[in-house]
Design a protein that fits this description.
alpha+beta; Butyryl-Coa Dehydrogenase, subunit A, domain 1; Butyryl-CoA Dehydrogenase, subunit A, domain 2
Length: about 375
């Protein structure tokens, strides 16, 4: 067991932390209030190399490992979840399938633009009747004159409808039976329509919307990986993505604790800062211990993945633990702020709204429990 980060990892963590404080924090409240997509922030993240951390250097990526990526996600979520999910969904869900299963031609076409952040990638899995039961995909694709003709619908898709969205990789049934394959659909393809963005509880500055496909035609060469292996592929993507979402939960919980401690030191009652009252100290102490435990569990999942070992169990445990912790930590931070915690100008109010989705997205808590129980032999 080695709890030391490398020099490169520490440098990246400090770089992202400074970027989040200097560039993201000052505009986070306005972006959330106006529901404006953070184009300028994304551009700057691309210039810093944050949109391609785990991808090969030959395609413009950082060539870094999963733990390094998790550190960056954590630091962004510590300040703003909308910016963080834009980067995380683009990396873990949108670009990773092309990196893992793309042909040389597909990688050459897409990875340089995606790793640089000049274009965003999305992953279209969830459907109106295929969420937790992802194998119930109804979107269909059939070959006709050397092209895939796609018909169907997706929902709750991140990064598919912005001005810089490049492509979405969708799951589709590619025969009349249970065969599921993944297909790359470029933005702007006739018959592919990103719908209007959802009105959401949180993550207001991120792009989330439904997608529809009506006779959408893409080249046969846009098949990603082998035909019929889409189910296995997206399960692998979800496992890796859960590490990113777990890192988001750690970062959000830490950010809430940071705000709670700062406020408790300033707010005075009965002649002293409320940080001196035992009730407040106990809340802060408990959260601190739980966050550190969740952080180590998340890092363990990342390290197992980097070693090439089985990480499905650790990733599911981390995602389950950190999502619930983020909800509790933000609730406690609001409570410590008292009435001010209910006011939008205070970050903890936004944090509280942003936290709940971490128990739902990338597999609900109930799905994580099923995965964990199954891997424990139950």
């Amino acid at each position: 067991m080695d709890f030391e980060l490398t020099g490169e990892q520490r440098l990246l963590r400090e770089t992202v932390r400074e970027f989040a404080r200097q560039e993201v924090a000052p505009v986070a409240e306005e972006l959330d209030r106006t529901k404006a997509f953070p184009y300028e922030i994304v551009r700057k993240m691309g210039e810093l190399g944050l949109m391609g951390i785990p991808f090969p250097e030959e395609y413009g990526g950082g060539g870094a490992d999963t733990l390094t990526y998790a550190l960056a996600v954590e630091e962004l979520a510590r300040v703003d979840s909308s910016v963080c999910i834009t980067m995380a969904a683009h990396t873990s869900l949108g670009t990773m399938p092309i990196h893992l299963w793309g042909t040389d031609e597909q990688k050459g076409e897409w990875l340089p633009e995606l790793a640089s952040g000049r274009k965003l990638a999305a992953f279209g899995l969830t459907e109106p009747e295929a969420g937790s039961d992802a194998g119930a995909t109804r979107t269909r694709a059939h070959l006709e004159d050397g092209e895939w003709v796609v018909d169907g619908a997706k929902q709750f898709i991140t990064n598919a409808g912005t001005d810089i969205s490049g492509c979405v990789t969708i799951t589709a049934r590619t025969n009349g039976d249970g065969e599921i394959s993944n297909i790359i659909v470029p933005n702007g393809t006739p018959g592919y329509d990103p719908g209007e963005p959802y009105r959401k509880m949180g993550w207001n500055a991120s792009d989330t919307r439904p997608l529809s496909f009506d006779g959408c035609r893409v080249p046969e060469a846009n098949l990603l990986g082998r035909r019929g292996e889409g189910f296995k592929q997206f399960l692998h993507i979800l496992d890796g993505g859960r590490i990113g979402v777990a890192a988001m939960g750690v970062g959000l919980a830490q950010g809430a604790l940071d705000e709670a401690i700062a406020y408790a030191k300033e707010r005075r009652a009965f002649g002293q800062p409320i940080s001196k009252f035992q009730a407040i100290q106990m809340k802060i102490a408990d959260l601190s211990a739980e966050i550190e435990a969740a952080r180590l569990l998340t890092y363990k999942a990342a390290i197992l993945k980097d070693r090439g070992e089985s990480f499905t169990l650790a990733a599911a445990q981390a995602k389950l633990k950190t999502g619930r912790l983020a909800v509790r930590a933000t609730e406690e931070a609001v409570q410590i702020h008292g009435g001010y915690g209910y006011i939008e100008e205070y970050p903890v109010c936004r944090f509280y709204r942003d936290a709940k989705i971490l128990t739902i997205g990338e597999g609900t808590d109930e799905v994580q429990q099923m995965v964990i129980a199954r891997l424990l032999g139950c």
